[in-house]
Amino acid sequence: MKATVRAHPNIALVKYWGKRDEALILPHQSSLSLTLAPIHVTTTVEFGAPSDTVELHGHAARGSERDRVLRLLDAVRVQAGRDLGPAKVVSRGDFPMAAGLASSAAGFAALAVAGRAAAGLPQDTRASSILARRGSGSACRSVQGGFCEWMRGEREDGEDSYAVQRFDAGHWADLRMVVAILDRGEKEVKSRDGMKNTVETSPYYPAWVKDAEAEVPRARELIAKKDLEALGELCERNAWRMHSTSLAADPPLCYLNSATLGLIQHLREQRKKGVPVWFTLDAGPNPVLLTDAAHEVAAEALARACGAVDVVRCVPGGDATLLTEHLF
Ligand code: PMV
């Protein structure tokens, strides 16, 4: 009745931005990401505890944060088809939370896989991806490593909306993602609120959906060919389009700050000098730089020169995995 799982975050190369179903977390469009190592979240779940308790990153979770964790475990109880009793959850990550890095993705992926294992359910990446999605959309892409594609699906019950691995972490071992932490603060508008506002008010939103859906198979082809330059261009274009549709919302939503723009500008100059480095940007000010192993040190140096207070160098990460050592 106890299981512990380690999962990695992921960074979307083609972003998910906007839900067609808020309760089930069903997206309007498909997305594609890379799982990132070595950063990770470890989560232990135990059923049959004296009462429901949720500890996230050293603090007792409250309110909606706690509810999201317990709701996911309720879904595990339904899958198990038996009374598992109250649950104790402890989760710890080793990277800055809520700063534009998808910490919730790793957290909910670990929770889904650990929850099913603690309930005695067999390992099943599709079932775990669907469960993780219900905690946080992007989490469905962290159940497996490498390059994962979240297929939007058509069904109203969401059973066809989950992520599948297109290429494993070893397919492009030379690829590097360098997270440039320009601002450690919590983001002002959570992605869940930002995307809702964008869906409801941005006149550009329908164009975003159509474009992003079409970019997924193109990104897949470029990853197959390991074409860094074309993938870098696609990532930048997709990030700009996500941020443009948000900028056009009412009230406008701007996740970039002046340091973000400064770094982006600098990347352009570096590329003219032959340094292969591109950016992507989630719902926060901290760009993630896409480059190769030969240039990751240069990418870190230019991030620091542009004001990064911290830099996390990442390689393609593996699947969410069960550990034998528990957090309690
Ligand atoms: O799953 P959420 O609620 O953390 O939303 C993630 C949204 C982006 O990070 C901006 C894009 C993505 O696909 O990960």
UniProtKB/TrEMBL annotation:
InterPro entries: GHMP_kinase_C_sf, Mev_decarb, Mev_diP_decarb, MVD-like_N, Mvd1_C, Ribosomal_Su5_D2-typ_SF, Ribsml_uS5_D2-typ_fold_subgr. This is diphosphomevalonate decarboxylase. One of its GO terms (molecular function) is ATP binding. One of its GO terms (cellular component) is cytosol. Belongs to the diphosphomevalonate decarboxylase family. Transmembrane segments: none annotated. The keyword Glycoprotein does not apply. It is an enzyme of class 4 (lyase). Keywords: ATP-binding, Lipid biosynthesis, Lipid metabolism, Lyase, Nucleotide-binding. Residues 178-296 form the Mvd1 C-terminal domain. The keyword Lyase applies. It comes from Corallococcus coralloides (strain ATCC 25202 / DSM 2259 / NBRC 100086 / M2). Residues 7-163 form the Diphosphomevalonate decarboxylase-like N-terminal domain. GO terms for biological process: isopentenyl diphosphate biosynthetic process, mevalonate pathway. The gene is mvaD. Its EC number is 4.1.1.33. NCBIfam families: mevDPdecarb.
